[in-house]
Amino acid sequence: MAVILDGKALSEKIRNQLKEEVEKLREKAGREPALAVVLVGNDPASEIYVRNKIKACENVGIRSIDRKLPANITQEELNSVVRELNENETVDGIIVQLPLPEHLSCREVINYISPEKDVDGFHPVNVGKAVIGLYDEGLMPCTPAGVMKFFEEYNISLEGKNTVMVGHSNIVGKPLANMLLNANATVSVCHVYTNDLAYYTRNADILCVATGVPHLIKEDMVKEGAVVIDIGISRVNGKIVGDVDFERVKEKVAAITPVPGGVGPMTITMLLYNTVKAFKMRMGY
User: Fold this and answer.
1) By CB neighbour count within 10 A (0-12 exposed, 13-18 middle, 19+ buried), where does 111 fall?
2) From CA 145, how far away is CA 140, in angstroms rounded?
3) What is the pLDDT of residue 1?
4) What are the backbone dihedrals phi and psi of residue 40, each rounded to the nearest 5 degrees, phi first?
5) Which of 92, 118, 120, 245 is catalytic?
6) Cα(231)–Cα(98) distance, rounded to whole angstroms?
7) Is 97 a catalytic residue?
């Protein structure tokens, strides 16, 4: 039976550490780290994500600043809000909840966020630092950073391992592939245009999947004794499922993340981690 890589337990462990650290930082600096969350419009799913992030901040003692903006806001007005938060010395982290309304440019607003406050890790400066492994000097994208924490927590060696990343998004696939490469794994990146996906996945010692295609990875597509990280999340007939056929694949592999309860909890936890890190970097701690 596979080891179930428990994202809830790991997330709770890290959040407890952050809570203790925030208390010490508050005593030292006279204030707690602060995260500004910008929400444009009233998309129900985005509102839920924002509430969860604000609640998570409260749980570890991070001050949250909730900026709700109308859906018809102009690009210039949105950029102005971000600029104001950049200049606010009591704000340590800024996130703009995605997706944005169609008339707004995600890339433009991401580029407006100061790299030192970009706790999502999406700014090109932080992306570049992630590519060349300057993790201490930048803010890493939350989901890939959360995945790397699993390998660290469960003592899963990456060095020399045949590692396959399925999915090449800018948010997960590309940055995670670079992090795996920096850990000296041998990395293949697969995507929708890859011919014979199973050829790659069957040879993977470490298989990471982030496509949003429910149960894309079947039992016959994985190697015996592999480690499987399922980053995808979909709703099928009212049930939350991942990109991997968990019930069947878990009988074959050495370790696997469940969905829900795997990578998902770690994404928000790493956002909190980045906010505390941004505070320390800005304060010179």
Assistant:
1) middle
2) 6
3) 83
4) -105, 120
5) 120
6) 18
7) yes
53 an active-site residue? yes
The structure tokens 């991070």 sit at 62
Angstrom distance (rounded) from CA 261 to CA 263: 7
> Which residue type occupies 146?
G
| Torsion, Cα of 46, 50, 55, 57 (10° steps) | 150
Q: Return d(Cα 205, Cα 225) in angstroms, integer.
A: 8
**What is the C-alpha to C-alpha distance for residues 137 and 6, in angstroms, rounded to an integer?**
29
Nearest-angstrom CA–CA distance, 219 and 273? 35
> What's the pLDDT at 207?
98
- pTM for this prediction: 0.95
Q: Which of 92, 97, 230, 277 is catalytic?
A: 97
Which residue has tokens 């952050």? 18
Q: Taking the alpha carbons of 121, 127, 132, 134 in that order, is the dihedral positive or negative?
A: negative
The sign of the torsion formed by the CA atoms of 174, 180, 182, 185 equals negative
- Rounded CA-CA distance 165/177 in Å is 6
Q: What are phi and psi of 206, to 5 degrees?
A: -125, 125
Identify which of 40, 211, 170, 171 has the alpha carbon closest to the alpha carbon of residue 50: 40
At 14, list the tokens.
């890290």
The yes-or-no answer on residue 230 being catalytic is no
Calculate the CA 77 to chain-centre distance: 27
Residues in Cβ contact with 76 at an 8 Å cutoff, skipping those fewer than 6 apart: none
In the predicted model, residues of the chain with pLDDT beneath 70 are none
Is the separation of the CB atoms in 189 and 177 below 8 Å?
yes
